[in-house]
Every structure is written in structure tokens, then in C-alpha cells.
């Protein structure tokens, strides 16, 4: 008899968890509190309590080839970075393709998830739900928590003396939808994450003036990288990941600074991070530097105090006649349906084994999917999490002892602080390829590059020096996909397809960049021989 699995939420994590359950022969039931799939990525004009919210202009920060599920490439005519409506279209195609909707109970809220009385032997959970004011209780063999972490806004008003006197309007970025109604205003945006930057840039096109207040600063990158390719196709390769791991810390951090300042000098724009050697997630924004360049946005330090109409900053400067304050200050973690002891977030540390499993459970039958912030696309990350979790539920993979898991949690947190810092916004931060490989190794899906080098050198080179996308984790292990190799070798044409909307005669000139690479390789060979 198939094990019954409760999946909480029908966003990205919930959909891919459903598919992984089906792939492993489990019997899933998904509870979604709203009337449709998509979670965070389904835009609604009005903010709904208990639901993630995005603004109308949101575009993905990771490209389609790095964001698709491992056995389901996005249509080649899709743009490389997607408007939220286009991404939601992909999720709908995905759900139809694998017939996932039949497992979802819409407009059903999960009220509680508690251990069954015989949990120590059965590992079962009692899940209480509510639909149309009617409560129901059911027993499940496992639970996958896929409700996300962009639901409860973090609004630290206590850190802004004078906010109670401020006569203007203020709200969290969670409530922002579009610039209408804010035309001609003088607006202060608190924060410098992706949402803060997007909102500041959009408002600056309609507002009289926009100010951005940042405590620590941030590196800013554009979506376009070397040769016009998406940034993550260039940044996230196994070769570059290896360099970042083996080079001495000072050299690695120096290289990071040089790379980030290639586009523009962050110091000149008031954006340079306070600790510029931390590997914090950079802001992805194509327009922020230009809006600063011609004065539509002004970067300010931390707000020291607010008056009825002005903001006083730590450097002593004052900006008068502030009409609106937008707090882009992130989110806090909340799982109201779980017992407090199950998922602990204390001292900016998540007590979950590999960001997934509570270490103290007698039976490993509950997993959090998507409670993480990788330095790359979240979609392949949650897919590998779900693939591992379902195999743990089936008993095909086992977790180590509680003591070993706790030691890993502590060590991982120390490494996270060393790499990314202690900021609340970095609580869930993790390296990208390293974490993907960790998960893939748990299920036997991590590609063996050395072995492939002997069997298929062309593919091995692509895997190591090319983009590390999700297809790599379908070459071997459980659930291999026959189209994985082809998808890896043909990804360039899917990148270029939506760009080549005008026929241009191909240049036959010998590329200078290629010549430089050849000369560079020859120089290395000569140096090696003579040494």
C-alpha cells in the first residue's frame, strides 16, 4: 500500500513535490488555501492575508535554462528572463503535463499538523484542515511543508524613532503593486534587496524623488553578462565554483570585488557593501545604476530618526518633505500550523538538517521544501530537495543520527556566517552548486565528471565548464531522463531563439576572443614545460 503524503501549498515547491511523490509511487494530497496554483508567482491586484504577494512588474532574476525543472525544459520561444505571468504559464504547462491538479484540494487551509499518538513507531501525522467552514482530520504517513517564507512581513518600526510622529504614508513592500497613486511624491525606500531596488527604480519614473536608505550597501549586477548571455549561465559553472572553493579567501574576495566593479564603481555610487568581502547575494537590477546616475534615485545611509515630514540619517543629512516610506525589510518565518518545536528559527539560525529535516524526530517523516535562499535559482533546488525527501519517506535513503545532524547544522551555520554574514536576510543563504551536489549525492544523481570524461568527453566538458543547470541531475540516479544529454548540448539554441527575431548575416571574421584564448592556452603550456 502506497504511503500517504500531505503536501502543504501548491506553489512551486508544492507542485514539484507532488510530481516527486508520484514518481516514487507515493500517494500525495496537496492542500492549497487559495483557488489556484502558483503561490508567490501568481499576481493578484489585492494583498491577501496569509499569502505571498508580488508587484505587477516582477521579472525573474534567474534565467529560464537555469530555472526549469530537470526533465521539463521551458519552451524555447520563452524569453530568457520571465515576467511573472510567463513563469506562471510554465507552471500551468508543467502541472497539466504531469496531471498534478487532481491531487490538489483548493481553498483548503491547514489548521494543524500534529504527531499521531503512535508517532514513535509509525511516524504518522494528524493533519486538520478547513474548507468552506468545515473542518476535517486525516492521518498521513509523511508531510511536506511547501508554504514558503515570503508571507509574514518583517517591519521593524522600533528601529525607526519618530515613526509614530510621521504624517506621511508608510507600508511594507509586501503591499506594493504598482506606482499608480504615488506620482509626484518624495519617497523613501528602506532596504537594498531585490524588491527594494525594483520598487525604487519603478517609482523613480513617476515620483518627484526617490531615496534609498541602506545599512550595509550591496553589490549590484545586471542580468546580462559576458557575450550578452544571462548572468547565471556564466556565473554558475562547476569550474568557477571550484575556483571559489579552492582559492585562498583573500584572493577569492578580491576577485569578487573586481568582477562586481566591472560594470560600475560601487563606491562612486554609494552602493559599496560595508563588508565588501562577504559573499552576500548581490542585487540583480539592470536599471538602478542609471537611475542613480541621473539623480532620480539618491542613496542614503541608515535612518537615524523620523520627524513629521522628514528623515534624518546617520551621517547628519536631512531629507525634507518625505511623503511616503516603503519598508522593503524582508520577511519573518512563520508556520502557524506546526508545533513550535518542529521548525526552530533562533538567533538567525534554522535548526533543520540541510535546511529540510527537523533533527530531533524519532521518524524522518516531515520535510520543509523551499525554506532556503540559494545563490542561484530556487526551482532546481526545491526539486532536488523533494526528490531526496520522497526517497527518505520510502526508506530508500536514511538520515544520520540526531547528534550528527545537529553537528552539521551548527557547522553549516558557522560557514554561512563566515561567507554571508549575520544579517537576518542571510539566514537561509547557501552556496548554489555545492548545495545542489550535496542533495544529488544523497540520491545518487550527482554526475561523475571524471567517469564521463572517459566515456563522453564532449558532455563532460559541457558539465564542468558550462552552466550547471538542472538537466545534469537527470543523467544518472533515480528517475533518469533520456532527454537530459540533448537538453545540455542544445541549451544555447534555446537561449538564442527568443533573441533572434531579426535575421542578421553571420560574421565570418575570425573572433579575436577565440584567438586570445588559444594564445592563453599556449602560454600556459609553454610555462608548464619550462617550469
Automatic annotation (TrEMBL):
It is a single-pass membrane protein. InterPro entries: FAD/NAD-bd_sf, Flavin_mOase, Flavin_mOase-like, Flavin_mOase_2, FMO-like. One of its GO terms (molecular function) is flavin adenine dinucleotide binding. It comes from the Eukaryota. The chain crosses the membrane at residues 510-530. Pfam families: FMO-like (PF00743). It is found in: Endoplasmic reticulum membrane; Microsome membrane. PANTHER family: DIMETHYLANILINE MONOOXYGENASE. Belongs to the FMO family. This is Dimethylaniline oxidase 2. It comes from Mustela putorius furo. The lineage of its organism: Eukaryota, Metazoa, Chordata, Craniata, Vertebrata.
